[in-house]
Amino acid sequence: MHAETTATDRKAAALAAFKDLDRDPGVAKPDPILVVDGVVRRFGGLTAVDVDHVEVQRGSITALIGPNGAGKTTFFNQLTGFDTADAGQWTFNGRNMHGVPPHKVARAGMVRTFQLTKALSKLTVIENMRLGAQAQKGESFWRALVPGFWRDQEAEITERAEELLVRFKLDKKRDDFAGSLSGGQRKLLEMARALMVQPELVMLDEPMAGVNPALTQSLLGHVKDLREQGMTVLFVEHDMDMVRDISDWVIVMAQGAVISEGPPDTIMSDPRVIDAYLGAHHDAPLSESELEKQLHEAEAALEEEIVEETQK
Amino acid sequence: MDWNTIISTTVKAAIGVETVLYALAAIGLNVHFGYTGLLNFGQAAFMAVAGYGLAVTVTVLGLPFWAGIVVGLLAAALLALLLGIPTLRLRADYLAIVTIAAAEIIRLIFRSVAFKDVFGGSDGRRGFSDGFYALNPFPAGEYGFGWFTFNHRLLWVLLVGWVLVGLSCLLVYMLMKSPWGRVLKAIREDEDAVRSLGKNVFSYKMQSLVLGGVIGSLGGFVYGLAFASVQPDIFGTETTFFAYTILILGGAARVFGPVVGSMIFWVLLVLVYGVLSGAVEAGYITFMTSTQVGQFRFLLVGLGLILLVVFRPQGIFGDKREIAIDAR
């Protein structure tokens, strides 16, 4: 029961932080963990990312949405050092992160996953997990040669990895090659491995892409769990049902820029989002329920036509 | 046909000098390619700079044997750094292009007329191994039993060579079961994933390149000392490709893969040569002359490599499970 109360507390705290905020892009948050200013990335003549100002609230689950090609993943790559921004500043916990290489970004506590899952196929699941641990003594060349230096630490790491595997229901796969896992299990493994880094901010790039529906609920639960454990989550997602279900705040990107922000239940009624996000495909279904509604309407129209035809 | 000679040379080849020096080269390649996924096609260059480092230090500079060994090892490490700094940040295939080119550049410098005073041109260098044989604890004579009979010089080279092979295998075994080795194997699978987990990928790739290069360079020393000479054309690209054949034959990313691969490779090569040249001399084979036999066996090496990659890509020691993953 206790866990449940803290869970609701965390969610309530996150929601309270967002309660009185404006819906403008770049609105200031009470306690931002990540502050981004003027990040620009151009590929030749194309400006893929041009984010003026955006803040991510500590201890919340923030969704980053936008149509295909909006620059969400590119933006992720800038923030995590996997690509070099042409201009801009961003701070993580007050520390400037522009030009910091990816491994140092991860060490600072900002860990990402990838849209195309990067399970290390020919390593076992447990080795994948162990790799995530930081400051391993046995990872330096000379100390690696003397097992006495790192054996104790390795045991600790293994214990922590096994706990996480149990949580993510991968413990039965412990000694299997990661390459033999299903797509959804790989997503789980990647998330669990990222947690081995003990990050403050977890950045998930389309965590639901290619995951079968049976696993979706369990993955959603794990993402919510991250917030309950005091981590901040920023994730890119296309599935609006999922965004509505788990996020506390939504940031909308289109054509490289942040165009709107707001709580998940009202964001899709924002005219700027409808204009830019839906654009030319204004009538395209946003979610399964809308798709169904549209199908019903279309069917009704067809039936009417048939009735008219037969009456003639 | 003299079966006795054919079989005795074949059996000797299993532990011979070529087996030792190619085993060392392949152990180095195993660190590069098998464990880290670095496509180094210039392993011959690491052997060359070590062999020449030793030869030039002793013959031209007149320094003692040990100084030559130190210079050779430093040269191999330096070569790894020089190759790695510009290429390790790029995709894997660039390293392959740069290493194969660098190896040829180094070979051509060693055989160039301009540096004949230092490197001795295409004749190479000789007369630098006295320091090594002065350390030989075995008095002059023949040693061994049955087919395994060697003179005192060869016995000393083989003893040192196999000790080096053993130590290299032990080093690779210790490293690859440690967290350090885990990072290397992870880099082989996906660099970006490893970066996202807070590891400095460039630094690990560089360490791997230096380690594998230095182990490979031991093969260069063994060659120079066993034959008491170095020539530039010994360290051509075919040396690297023999080492790759050996590595794949034995099984990449397996500690003893390169050693067993080297033994099988040289046993087969010597056996095929012995049988074919015996058959030519006895008149059983009429479409080849005995000089063509030497070339023909390398044709068989190529055919063998192709068949190996098609039918048993994991080699002798490889794990079928690991290969099956790539296939799907």
From TrEMBL, chain A:
SUPFAM superfamilies: P-loop containing nucleoside triphosphate hydrolases. Keywords: ATP-binding, Nucleotide-binding, Transport. Gene3D superfamilies: P-loop containing nucleotide triphosphate hydrolases (3.40.50.300). GO terms for molecular function: ATP binding. InterPro entries: AAA+_ATPase, ABC_AA/LPS_Transport, ABC_transporter-like_ATP-bd, ABC_transporter-like_CS, BCA_ABC_TP_C, P-loop_NTPase. Residues 34-280 form the ABC transporter domain. CDD domains: ABC_Mj1267_LivG_branched. This is ABC transporter ATP-binding protein. It comes from Nonomuraea indica.
TrEMBL record, chain B:
InterPro entries: ABC_transp_permease (IPR001851), LivM-like (IPR043428). It comes from the Bacteria. CDD domains: TM_PBP1_LivM_like (cd06581). Keywords: Cell membrane, Membrane, Transmembrane, Transmembrane helix. The chain crosses the membrane at residues 6-31, 38-59, 65-85, 92-110, 154-175, 209-229, 241-257, 264-287, 293-311. It is found in: Cell membrane. It is a multi-pass membrane protein. PANTHER family: HIGH-AFFINITY BRANCHED-CHAIN AMINO ACID TRANSPORT PROTEIN BRAE, HIGH-AFFINITY BRANCHED-CHAIN AMINO ACID TRANSPORT SYSTEM PERMEASE. This is Branched-chain amino acid ABC transporter permease. It comes from Nonomuraea indica.
